[in-house]
Amino acid sequence: MTSSTFPPHSSVFKTHIRVVAALTIREMTTRYGRKIGGYFWAILDPVAFIGLMSIVFSSVSHTPPIGRSFMLFYATGYLSFWIYRTLAEQTSTAVKFNKSLLTYPVVTPYDAVLARAALQIVTQFIVCTIIFGGMAFFITPFPSIDFANLMGATIVATGLGFGIGLLNTTLFNLSGLYERIFTIANRPLFLISGVFFLPDSIPTPYRDYLLWNPIVHIIGWFRRAFYPAYRAAYVDETWLISLAFGSTLAGLVLLKIFGTRLRESE
Amino acid sequence: MIHLDRVSKSFKHKGHRKYIVENVSFSIPRGRSLGLLGRNGAGKSTLLRMIAGIAYPDSGKVIRQARVSWPLGFAGSLHGALTGEQNVRFIARIYNQPTEALVAYVEEFAELGRAFRMPVSTYSSGMRARLAFGVSMSVKFDYYLIDEITAVGDTNFKNKCKDVFHNKLADSDIIMVSHSVKTIREYCQAGVVLENGKLTYFENIEEAIAVHENNMKS
Q1: Residue A28 pLDDT > 70, yes or no?
Q2: What is the DSSP string of A206-249?
Q3: B68 pLDDT tier (thresholds 50, 70, 90)
Q4: Which domain holds residue A93?
Q5: Nearest one of A67, A56, A210, A76 to A131, comparing CA atoms
Q6: Residues A216-256: pLDDT tens digits?
Q7: What is the extent of the structural domain holding B88?
Q8: Closest approach of B53 to chain A, Cα-based (Å)
Q9: Which of A97, A126, A190, A224 is the most interior residue, by most CB within 10 Å?
């Protein structure tokens, strides 16, 4: 079950780079190009959300669970959650939304997935830089950021988002039932991931149940970078890294096995 | 040259297995355009997609030692959310062609006017086909795979296509699936008849057509 193309071997890698670049441009023109303001909206979306949450919660409560700034508390919680969820969503639908372009033999499902993930990762980087850069103006004194923890948490959130998205690329195609169950099961994820609260404030045994959710760990790790006094001892780094690697690897294997099916299914 | 090496491909139809091709070995020679004939549902389009490399054999392999186009036809390789121009740019990029030259050529060739800069989802099937043909013919392939070109439009445009194939692309070959015997005659010199999982090659397209029409009667 193999097929070879012409010219063989030598330029295969170059072709992939060219195709991924072309797909990235195509994603930019349709995802951000049609709306007024284009790319601006991708950035405004999380900014508006964090702003709104800060206003709502600061009016019902005096201080956030840690620190003094509501804005910083929700920004750290929401952005790490958003990195994972948006990347997972974007990656899982990449093949579906580029279906017609898979008619070109040089375009493979891998290219579609890679292009979309790459664009999303760049967008996330810009969004995070703008949000934290902007907050540094409003919040005084702005805490000194621990970059090792920030990098660690961001890489794990990105890896897990990409891995889950990659897995779902194939799994959604194999089973419509699974897709519905996954979507429904993930709906409350936002509420139970610790965007609004700290797991430290939840009584046992509920706290232990909550810690089965890897996003709780990601958010805890992310907050550690901004709150020097917050240790977040519950964060299991090894488990998160294994999950990110494991899901990406499993996703790649599934795509290798079912990639042909993805392309052939109408 | 394109070579099919012991290729099998089947699908399940109402509980039992139906073969499109069963253990078929066949070399598609250069220098002659080939018409694929077979009854409805015999799997002509799937065979063409396997030759292109976007459908895969269950066993055996397809060896391509030539530049083979994507299958052109109304199945639609164009992305609906992109404009005609953006689609052309995409194709230029993935096939490593000079973008601006390709855009200029296709804009003139496809005769879409202002629609060239509107989303393809607003196009009629004839407009899509004109765009798809315009682009594919401006990228140099050894084999052009064509799946039903009946939707391509008026006589004027058909003549334009034929002109390009006969002059500019004189050293390229066509592999074509069509329900129209007339179209096949116009473009193809040799023929292949697909029947019950077997491929039969005829050097003369008229022979292939005769066998095919005989198959259809029985």
Answers
A1: yes
A2: HHHHHTTSHHHHHHHHHHHTT-TT---TT--HHHHHHHHHHHHH
A3: very high
A4: 12-264
A5: A76
A6: 999 999 999 999 889 889 999 999 999 999 999 999 999 99
A7: 78-140
A8: 6
A9: A224
Where do runs of H (alpha helix) occur along chain A? 12-31, 39-60, 70-92, 94-97, 109-138, 147-174, 176-186, 206-210, 214-224, 237-264
Of A6, A106, A264, the CB nearest to B95: A106
CB contact under 8 Å between A100 and B76, yes or no, is yes
Nearest to B64 among A5, A30, A107 (CB): A5
Single-letter residue type at B11: F
Residues of B with CB under 8 A from a CB of A: 52-59, 61-68, 70-71, 75-82, 86, 89-91, 93-96
Chain A CA closest to residue B51: A3
CA B42 to chain CA centroid, Å, is: 16
Residue B173 lies in a domain: no
> How many domains would you assign to chain B?
1
Judge: B78–A100 Cβ closer than 8 Å, yes or no: yes
Q: Which of residues 10-49 of A touch B (CB under 8 A)?
A: 15, 18-19, 21-22, 25-26, 29-30, 34
Distance from CA of A4 to the nearest CA of B (A): 5
CB contact under 8 A, A103 and B96: no
The answer to whether the CB of B187 falls within 8 A of the CB of B172 is no
A238 CB contacts (<8 Å, ≥6 apart)? none
Structure tokens at B17: 């297995």
CA A106 distance to own-chain centroid: 28
Per the CB < 8 Å rule, is A263 touching B55? yes
Chain B residues in contact with A107 by the CB 8 A cut-off are 94
**Does the CA dihedral B11-B16-B19-B20 come out positive or negative?**
negative
| Predicted complex ipTM | 0.89
Burial of A174: CB neighbours in 10 Å, binned 0-12, 13-18, 19+: middle
Q: Which residue of chain A has the CA closest to B60?
A: A1
d(CA B121, CA B101): 24
Q: How many CB pairs under 8 A join A and B?
A: 84
Reported as a single tens digit per residue, the pLDDT across A89-119 is 999 999 988 988 998 999 999 999 999 999 9
**Is the peptide bond preceding residue A205 cis, with omega within 30 degrees of 0?**
yes
B94/A260 CB distance under 8 A? no
pLDDT single digits (tens) B22-41: 999 999 988 889 999 998 88
Listed in sequence order, the residues at least 6 apart from B112 whose beta carbon sits closer than 8 Å to its beta carbon are B84, B123, B127, B130, B131
Number of domains in chain A: 1
Query: Is residue A108 in some structural domain?
Result: yes
